[in-house]
Design a protein that fits this description.
mainly alpha; single chain
Length: 449
């Protein structure tokens, strides 16, 4: 617990969440309870919101992106530097190397945010993750990634910490609000698609790498990059395999978030069914929200909630993959029988933080006076933005670590691409069918207009 990256992802996220919530709690309006009792809408603002930001929207001059956000951008850099430098120190890693490299990696992440903020690019919903990956890939496949940057290329550490922060946003009340229809769409189709895609890759495509097969299957069926990271740790996938799976996911996410809403509108599909379809199939939570917004507020709420419910499966998937890998894939008849502790060692511990934060902040949201206002202020005012920076830094790091020459052997024969396309096709068909059954046939009118 003192040196493990997984545990420190939990500690770092817990510190950030504790400080952010304490700041909101200590500065809440004195008459908050009284105002809420009268039925008034109360806006609680996090005092940290002015100190944490990302480059904003711009049209002609990139400098406009920093006009109002530059103090928050510097603030985000300072916070990330302090938290991660402390973690590196306690873990016995090179703090000096990290401090020397982080400004350059952070600058690349800032560039990615700024590129995503251009008005035309933003209109097409080409998010920062894509630009962060492209910026890193451009460097690694041209001049090569400088060695001094490597101490700050903490791909999994950034992602894991961001996922624990995400746990505070996956609130149980949203799951209960959508009820059984949303649960069936997210929890019945997902495991069917995951298992079917993995079996298809092994039995039909004969993919030589089981770990690549599993990471792509989890990435495509559960929730994209987050599930890929968790699953890669459980099955000990190579970094090149993880990069390939994430690259496929991001590429198809961009296509699906543009094409699917247009298709739903063109065929006159019910927006509630369409929102559930988007939430169960598009890999990125941000892309789901952007695509759902095109269909309207109701579709957006359903899409985002289905995706949040699906995100809960990250931990379940990682645990099941760890059990399967230890007891079946890596089983050796001549070796001693594998005990339960090996599963525990393999299990991605940061998933425990994700679940714990979800339970904790769901309880605060439901039991505290003004809980919804306080938790939302914490998330919208600070932790959501910091999570975005963590994910952006992770995508930059993935790009810097990925060389196309090393990926070419994995793409031989096009099997990974075929696997993803076939698996996503099955996912699209089954999710649409389940969404129609749940929201139109079995539970019609379950979502109030």
């Amino acid at each position: 617990m003192r040196t493990s990256e997984d545990w420190w992802a939990i500690w770092c996220a817990a510190i950030l969440l504790a400080v952010s919530f304490a700041a909101v709690w200590c500065t809440q309006p004195a008459d908050l309870a009284a105002k809420l009792a009268t039925g008034k809408s109360v806006k609680v603002v996090s005092p940290i919101s002015s100190w944490v930001a990302a480059p904003g929207k711009w049209t002609t001059s990139p400098m406009d992106a920093f006009a109002k956000s530059w103090p928050g951008t510097i603030g985000a850099f300072v916070i990330i530097t302090i938290v991660f430098a402390f973690a590196m120190f306690v873990r016995g890693k090179s703090v000096v190397g990290f401090l020397n490299a982080l400004p350059f990696v952070f600058l690349l992440a800032t560039l990615a945010f700024a590129m995503a903020g251009q008005s035309v690019i933003k209109a097409y919903n080409l998010e920062y993750a894509l630009w962060a990956l492209l910026v890193g890939l451009l460097i690694s496949n041209t001049i090569g990634t400088p060695r001094f940057l490597r101490p700050a290329m903490l791909t999994e550490f950034y992602i894991k910490t961001g996922l624990v922060l995400l746990g505070a946003e996956v609130l149980m009340n949203r799951l209960l609000a959508l009820g059984l229809p949303g649960i069936f769409v997210a929890w019945v189709v997902t495991p069917i698609v995951l298992v079917s895609t993995y079996i298809f890759g092994q039995k039909v495509l004969k993919m030589p790498s089981r770990s690549l097969n599993m990471v792509i299957s989890a990435d495509m069926s559960v929730c994209g990059v987050s599930a890929a990271i968790a699953t890669a740790g459980a099955c000990k996938a190579k970094k090149e395999e993880l990069s390939l799976a994430i690259g496929l996911s991001l590429s198809f996410t961009v296509i699906m978030m543009v094409v699917m809403p247009a298709f739903i509108k063109a065929v006159g599909m019910d927006p509630i069914v369409g929102g559930a379809w988007l939430g169960g199939t598009i890999d990125s939570t941000g892309a789901v929200a952007a695509a759902g917004a095109v269909l309207g507020d109701e579709a957006l709420e359903v899409a985002a909630t289905v995706k949040m419910i699906q995100n809960i499966l990250i931990g379940v998937t990682a645990f099941c993959v760890a059990v399967y890998w230890v007891t079946y894939v890596e089983r050796n008849e001549s070796a001693p029988r594998v005990g339960p502790m090996e599963i525990w060692y393999r299990f991605p511990k940061f998933v425990l933080g994700f679940v714990a934060m979800s339970i904790l902040f769901s309880a605060l949201y439901s039991t505290l006076t003004g809980g919804p206002e306080l938790v939302d202020a914490m998330i919208d005012g600070s932790t959501k933005t910091i999570r975005g920076w963590f994910f952006c830094l992770a995508f930059v790091s993935i790009g810097l670590e990925t060389n196309f020459k090393e990926l070419l052997p994995q793409l031989k024969g096009g099997k990974p691409l075929i696997l993803y396309v076939c698996g996503q096709t099955l996912n699209l068909i089954l999710t649409l069918l389940m969404a129609w059954l749940m929201f139109k046939v079995i539970f019609p009118g379950s979502v109030a207009p």
